[in-house]
Design a protein that fits this description.
328 residues, alpha/beta, Quinone Oxidoreductase, Chain A, domain 1, Rossmann fold, 2 domains, 7-stranded mixed β-sheet, 6-stranded parallel β-sheet, 12 helices, NAD(P)-bd_dom_sf, oxidoreductase activity, ER, NADPH2:quinone reductase, zinc ion binding
Length: 328
């Protein structure tokens, strides 16, 4: 049996303690699967949680983390149609992307946008799909809306800034630090708030004449969510997409009642089960935006396979801007 190099979680803990790089058997595609040579594997916070044993999916040890990638198809399993050996594709891994080869389910594997390089394409799937569904499906974004994006220089926040601009919204991006502020401006945010220096509530209310933001995109939670309720517009929408700050969003709902705003949750992964055709049409729309230069992932760090634990550590510590992508 042939072997390949891959990272494996051999014990639960922080990435630099949990991960071990070694040789593992090359995977073989089963029915409905494709085997790809990994061209780029994007780091996600879910990878950190899996190393810690805190993610909702808990594979038995040892396992290879990495949920998002760009790859070149090298073999097709039985009953796979619409894909060919040699094609460059993006999507989610079945059993881990932080290795030289990875398995993918054919039904949720998509052709990579030709306008994106391997690192950008690796970061084009989860974040952009999440932002698109949050803004278009849940919040019904329209031209002229004021969109408040928290963690605007982060992985999913940076996608929301670009998609908000593409939809014709005025985008207010909230970040932490001058480097991230510069990145958010580069993404196209109309107004950038460094939360360490300014109060985003005051900025939004001044910008809108105290009307508030039509849409709040919140991947942070905790106090960020609570403060956002102070600057959401009448009939505005707060979309909860995560709680990277560590505290799950919660608030007395009588406040939503008296201010007439809605709180919408987004679990993008459910669409993969319930409406895969909509996920595919979303990818087609995003590919068109990528071709127009309106949806280009912010890849701040391109690292070697050997650097994956340190990249995940930096991601977990909030030290990264945009996306970190491993290039095997």
């Amino acid at each position: 049996m042939r072997a390949m190099r891959a990272w494996q979680v051999v014990r639960l803990g922080e990435p630099e303690e949990a991960l071990s790089l070694g040789e593992v058997p090359e995977p073989e595609p089963g029915p409905g699967q494709v085997l790809v040579r990994v061209l780029g594997a994007a780091a996600n916070f879910s990878d950190v949680l899996m190393c810690r044993g805190q993610y909702q999916v808990k594979p038995p040890l040892p396992f290879t983390p990495g949920v998002e990638l760009c790859g070149e198809v090298v073999a097709l399993g039985a009953a796979v149609e619409g894909l060919a050996v040699g094609e460059r594709v993006v999507g989610a891994s079945v059993a881990g992307a932080f290795g030289e080869l990875a398995l993918m389910n054919a039904g949720t594997t998509f052709r990579a946008p030709s306008t994106l390089d391997d690192a950008q394409a690796a970061a084009f799937y989860i974040g952009y799909q999440t932002a698109w569904f949050a803004l278009h499906r849940r919040a019904r974004i329209a031209a002229g809306d004021v969109l408040l994006v928290h963690a605007a220089a982060g992985g999913v926040g940076s996608a929301a800034v670009q998609l908000g601009k593409a939809a014709g919204a005025t985008v207010v991006g909230v970040v932490g630090g001058p480097g991230k502020a510069e990145a958010a401006r580069g993404l196209g945010a109309d107004v950038v708030v460094d939360r360490r220096e300014e109060d985003f509530v005051a900025v939004v209310n001044e910008l809108t004449g105290r009307r508030g933001a039509d849409i709040v995109f919140d991947p942070v939670g905790g106090e960020t969510y609570r403060r956002s309720t102070k600057c959401v517009a009448f009939e505005g929408r707060i979309v909860v997409v995560g709680f990277a700050g560590g505290e799950i969003q919660s608030a007395p709902l009588n406040h939503a009642l008296v201010k007439n705003y809605s709180v919408d949750g987004l679990h993008w992964g459910l669409y993969l089960e319930r409406d895969p055709a909509l996920v595919r049409s979303c990818h087609e729309a995003l590919t068109g935006l990528a071709a127009a230069g309106a949806a280009v992932p912010l890849v701040s760090e391109r690292i070697a396979l050997e650097e994956v634990p340190e990249g995940l550590r930096r991601l977990a510590a909030g030290e990264t801007t945009g996306r970190v992508v491993a290039l095997p």
